[in-house]
From TrEMBL:
It comes from the Bacteria. Keywords: Membrane, Transmembrane, Transmembrane helix. This is DUF420 domain-containing protein. The chain crosses the membrane at residues 16-34, 46-69, 81-101, 116-136, 156-175. It holds the Pfam family DUF420. It comes from Spirosoma sordidisoli. InterPro entries: DUF420.
């Protein structure tokens, strides 16, 4: 049974989702543009490796979430997807922390792999900005039990999110040989 949200609640939720969907990518872009790096110690050089593990786990959780919902196991689906959402949030914090404390690593690959890397990187970045809005809406609709709206949103959110988390791992594997640490 669908839960009806009052128009005021729905409007407030939409406003919050829209603000976050703009504020998060803008904040990340601004923080990435900070030239003066903060010294928090050498432990931050491990964050890209941790981020790859987080993205790998997120990809697996997304696939498991799809499996569970196709099996009509709503409880397992909900737990799995909320865990994926939590990991995505942790990734964002870790990613920003890494780039506040370390210079970006240039890609050193040559030949045919170079355009492949940059295609994956650019599509990953662009879609990571886009997916925020979809994921926030999908989670909101699920949590408020607006299942038909959740399903409509997930048609877009799921493949984009899976692409972003998977290409994040691929981009990491391609640039990993060029990390200095």
């Amino acid at each position: 049974m669908e839960t009806l949200q009052s128009p005021v609640q729905e409007q407030k939720a939409n406003r919050i989702i829209n603000v976050l969907s703009i504020a998060i990518p803008v904040a990340v872009a601004v923080l990435l543009g900070v030239r003066q790096k903060v010294d928090l110690g050498s432990w931050t050089t491990y964050l890209p490796h941790i981020n790859a593990v987080i993205n790998s786990a997120t990809s697996l959780l997304l696939i498991m979430g799809l499996y569970f919902i196709r099996q009509k196991n709503v409880a397992a689906h909900r737990r799995t997807m909320l865990t994926a959402f939590t990991l995505g949030s942790l990734f964002l914090v870790s990613y920003v922390l890494y780039h506040l404390t370390n210079e970006s690593t240039p890609f050193g690959g040559q030949g045919w792999i170079r355009p492949v890397y940059y295609f994956l990187l650019v599509s990953h970045i662009v879609l990571s900005v886009v997916v925020v809005w979809f994921v926030l809406r999908a989670v909101y609709f699920a949590v408020t039990n607006q299942i038909s709206k959740h399903k409509q949103t997930v048609k877009w959110a799921y493949p984009i999110w899976l692409y972003v988390s998977t290409t994040g791992v691929i981009v990491y594997l391609l640039i990993k040989p060029y990390y200095l640490h």
